[in-house]
Amino acid sequence: MSSVDLRFRHSTLSPQKRCVVSITTDRQAGGIANALASYSDALTNKGHHHTIILPPSAIVVPTLEKMKTVNLIKIPTGLIKFHLLTRGLFSQHIRAALAEADVFFLHNSVLLQVLKPTEKPCFLINHSGKTRHLNRADHIIFLTKIMRCRTMDKLPQLASRKDKLHVLPHGFSTKKPRKRAQTPKTPQKSVPVKLVSAGRFVKKKGFATLIEAARISQAAGISCQIDIYGAGPLKPSLQNQIESSGLTSVTLKGWSDNIKSIFADADLFCSPSLDEPFGLVIGEAMAMGLPVIASDTDGASELFGINTGSTDAALQHGGMIIPAGDTAALAAAIGRFCTDEKLRQTAGRNARKRIETSFTHAHLADQLDQLIRSVAPSPGEERSYI
């Protein structure tokens, strides 16, 4: 197989359409992979053409290959920077993509060093909240308002470019899968509340905090089964914590390719992260109508629409926000939801309504389309930054 895979080119766009070229060197699962897929879907819905330059080993490649309107140029990671630096001199596919682009979306800040200077609008999607190389970007897309404010505090020079700093949260599907057939409940046996959590088994995801909160809850007689989906280097440590705590209610699961089905059969979702720039899995749980317990990270605050840990405000939008790393607060939230079915139902409805109101795929498509047209107007249109 060639190191470059160009499935098709779309060189005859109507005046109303734009050619967007996205570039990444990232290969892992996570925010960038999800953004490439969701942006592709949004651009397709608005009739724009999307070319993506990425490594052939990127985990999102199989998903993108199923999208017939997406043009993939697969280049080994080490050569992507080289071909950008030489403006595609040694690759006709890169050269054509750079020439046809109306707008660039960069998903790694280091790429700004090799793509600039260019006369075409260039957006850096700031997935992580890091500030390195941000001063090089024409435009910066932040996932949350909080992240944008924090970045401006760290880089005061961006204050004069507020019109180039955009907030574009992820969008979510609200289509629910069917629930599995359940065994009828008997009045003699209480069925534990099923709480799920998901993410990489790394320190910043806060699973050690969740396990300790589970120990407190179990000691208090709270009936709750906790399943944690994911993988990562801390799995042995987390498993040892579960066993040494004498927990019978916590299970570490592997990754699931169908997280929506897991959510459909759950009662409650928890995100105990110590740091979360956005938190896609939180939004996915909310879209499925699950009440959510989340630590007060940027992502949770954006999705819940609040900047404080106000319990009442959070419940109105789908759950509870607790201080990151606070095991007592997390245990208390678990206890409250597990002992109040009506509260779970109300918060779950509110969570889904919050996504339907502000964070659907349609919202993402509309905002992305407006953003592109504001910087790359067609002949006869005026350029106007949003």
Would you write up a description of this structure?
Helices cover 38% and strands 16% of the residues. It is α/β, with parallel strands linked by helices. It folds into two domains: 19-171 and 361-375, Rossmann fold, CATH 3.40.50; 193-358, Glycogen Phosphorylase B (Rossmann fold, 3-Layer(aba) Sandwich). The chain has a seven-stranded parallel β-sheet with strand order 3-2-1-4-5-6-7, sandwiched between helices. Strands 10-9-8-11-12-13 form a six-stranded parallel β-sheet, sandwiched between helices. α5 (112-115) links the parallel β4 (103-106) and β5 (122-126). α7 packs across α13 (327-338) and α10 (280-287) crosses α14.
SS elements, strand count: 13
Instruction: Please estimate the helix content.
Output: 25-40%
What's the main sheet like? Answer: 7 strands, parallel
Overall geometry: elongated
Beta-strand percent range: 15-25%
Structural class of the secondary elements? alpha/beta
CATH superfamily of the largest domain: Glycogen Phosphorylase B
Low-confidence stretches: 1-12, 382-386
Task: State the name of the first-level CATH class of the largest domain.
Answer: Alpha Beta
* CATH fold label of the largest domain: Rossmann fold
CATH architecture type of the largest domain: 3-Layer(aba) Sandwich
Mean pLDDT: 87
| Strand arrangement in the largest pleated sheet | 3-2-1-4-5-6-7
Number of contiguous helices: 15
Q: Structurally, how many domains make up the residues?
A: 2
Order of helix and strand elements from N to C terminus: EHEHEHHEHEEHEEHEHEHEHEHHEHHH
Q: What is the terminal-to-terminal distance?
A: 43 Å
Radius of gyration computed on alpha carbons: 22 Å
